[in-house]
Amino acid sequence: MDERKTVLQIEDLHVSIEGKEIVKGLNLTLREGEKVAVMGPNGSGKSTLTNAVMGHPSYTVTSGSVKLLGEEILQLPADERARRGLFLAFQYPAAIPGVSVANFLRSAVNARRGEEVPVREFRQQLMDQFELLEIPRDFAGRYVNDGFSGGEKKRLEILQMAMLQPRVAMLDETDSGLDIDALKLVSDGINRVCGEETGVLLVTHYQRILNYVKPHTVHVYMDGRIVRSGGPEFGKELEEKGYEWIEKEVFAGTKGA
Predict the structure, then answer these.
(1) For 198-222, what is each residue's pLDDT tens digit?
(2) Conformational region of residue 33, where left means phi above 0, alpha means psi within -120 to 50, and beta covers everything else
(3) Angstrom distances, CA of residue 140 to CA of 102, 122, 136
(4) Which of 191, 180, 206 is nearest to 46 (CA)?
(5) What domains are defined for the chain?
(6) 31 closest CA partner among 257, 245, 215
(7) Which residues contact 247 (CB under 8 A, 6 or more apart)?
(8) How far apart are CA 30 and CA 2, in angstroms?
(9) 244 CB burial (10 A radius; 0-12, 13-18, 19+)
(10) 256 pLDDT above the threshold of 50
(11) Which residues share a beta bridge with 80?
């Protein structure tokens, strides 16, 4: 029996965008210290899932339940979900010209803790994470994602995660646009930051990041729900065989009926 604490519990989740249902009754459990991969073809609605769980206002949850550490969070705005320990790394992180990385992170850490963090304590924590994640210290004075390369943007997302210490980290196609060296650096950062208390939900459509961030479970997401699940080796099978065979098995005789 798995005695690890459940950090995220999604039950029968239905999500719509402009009246069109995208997530169609999804169930998913994530425990502390666990890495779960959600794989699926482009356009299957994987990003809709993470954005809806995070509380993006463009996505309407029509029914279902999302519990973070046992607390129902669907009634909470996105900032309150973040304060309670939910984190989302975006596929395309936004630039914030004029706002330094250090100031951005200090505001985020203050909000997460619910109190003003002393400057000396924050600076020490930031320097420690720069060293741990092998990130140049000049990141602190640069404007958030302004002029950053794809790899730098993703490393900054991992730095944010390290500073905020979330209980649930949702990583939406973090491997998107990364060359192999950047992928290794980002994956190493994920493995270093996400310890025994953090559950990781890794959304991707490629196997390659799973070579470095080893998942406990791999789910296949299609047509708004999880249709197949397996262990770590399942991702390699998907890489070799693609998704079409699963689609044929799951939806045989249903399309066009």
Answers:
(1) 999 999 888 889 999 999 999 999 9
(2) left
(3) 5, 12, 8
(4) 206
(5) 6-92+167-185+195-251 (3.40.50.300)
(6) 215
(7) 222
(8) 12
(9) exposed
(10) no
(11) none
pLDDT of residue 257 exceeding 50, the answer is: no
Sheet strands (E) in the chain: 6-17, 20-31, 35-39, 60-68, 71-72, 86-89, 96-100, 143-144, 168-172, 199-204, 217-222, 225-230
Q: Is the pLDDT of residue 253 over 80?
A: no
CB count in 10 Å sphere of residue 158: 25
| 93-141 confidence digits (pLDDT tens) | 889 999 999 999 999 999 999 999 999 999 999 999 999 888 999 999 9
By C-alpha distance, which of 25, 47, 32, 148 is closest to 158?
A: 148
Question: Which tokens in the block code for residue 115?
Answer: 């109190």
**Is residue 125 within 8 Å of 85, Cβ to Cβ?**
no
Reported pTM: 0.90
80 is written with which tokens? 């309150």
